[in-house]
Amino acid sequence: MATPQRDELPVAGLTTGQLARLLGVSPTTLRSWDRRYGFGPASRADGRHRRWSPDDVAMAREMCRLTASGTPPAEAARTARLRARGSAGPDGPDEWPPVLSDRADGADGADGADGAAPRAGSGLPLGRVRSECRGLARAAVRLDAEEVRELLRRAVAHHGPAVAWEEVMSPALQAVGRKWQSSGERGERGERGEQYVEVEHLLSWHISAALRHYYLDAARPRRTVTGAPVLLSCLPGEQHTLPLDVLTAVLGDEGLAVLMLGGSVPADALITAVRRVASLAVVLWAQTGDTADLALARRVAGARWGVRGARTQTPVILCGPGWHQVTDAAEPPGLTYVTSLHDAVRTLTGLRREHPSR
Known about the structure:
There is one protein chain. The protein is an alpha/beta fold. The protein folds into three domains: about 1-95, Multidrug-efflux Transporter Regulator, Chain: A, Domain 2 (Orthogonal Bundle); about 120-220, Methionine synthase domain (Methyltransferase, Methionine Synthase (B12-binding Domains), Chain A, domain 1), CATH 1.10.1240; about 220-355, 3-Layer(aba) Sandwich (Rossmann fold), CATH 3.40.50.280. The protein contains twelve helices and nine strands. The strands form three sheets. A five-stranded parallel sheet has the order 4-3-5-8-9, sandwiched between helices. Strands 1-2 form a two-stranded antiparallel sheet. The longest helix has 30 residues, at about 190-220. The relative contact order is 0.07.
């Protein structure tokens, strides 16, 4: 739905609830901003009910933009008021704060008096996270694609793909998923539940785009041109490619090239690719037990490449929670099961050291 422009807003002004829905924040957040930072509407209807004028709405939008970029709420409120009066204030910081937020309340200024976990100003339970993670969550809930893109770009550039994923991207995605799931469990799926599905799709797409861009451009100078690539693939029926996008970006940082086949690769096509490419290793991702095909993984492990009489097998790495559902404690012969991003990177960089000629 298109965001109402300044000249389309009601002359009488918006109520706090209407403005909260417009910005994608909670009414409690707006009231908290007013109480803590004097950041409220200029007029009240009948002396009691607050009404947000077009100027007030513009000021609130600026406040949201600044807090989403990591600016502390008090500074963001001061800057937004200055800009509303026509005085240029400082932009948000170009560098991300390197420490976790240790506020007892939400970064949006909500009370948090009920002892609940800190939230992102949008009803998302984030807990103790980096400030840019809170900003990313706020921007995503507002469906502000440009802000999401910029926040992700800066996070990956400043922290690198591994830290950006673990401390900024993943916590925001998990919070959206928990919110969507809990709203469904309470029988509140309706409009709010659908909103969080949209948020999750928007956030996932932009995270994937940011990581792919990083691998293609920022990590390019570090990749070994002559090194054999790591072949990454989702199994048939598996559409969750985002974890492989994360691994691709991190491997690029480690100097490894990647050949990414993408989601739901047919079995025969996967085997053909393994036989055609002299790869360092094959990584197979399975999100669920339904797609974790152990028989296919063994076929991949048995596939050989190279000239007749000197063909070589390629190591196969099993990644994703789905494999845990179909394998027991004993590791399948010819296959290596890894349980984390760091484990996968350590295994693959170790293979490069063992086989420098590949």
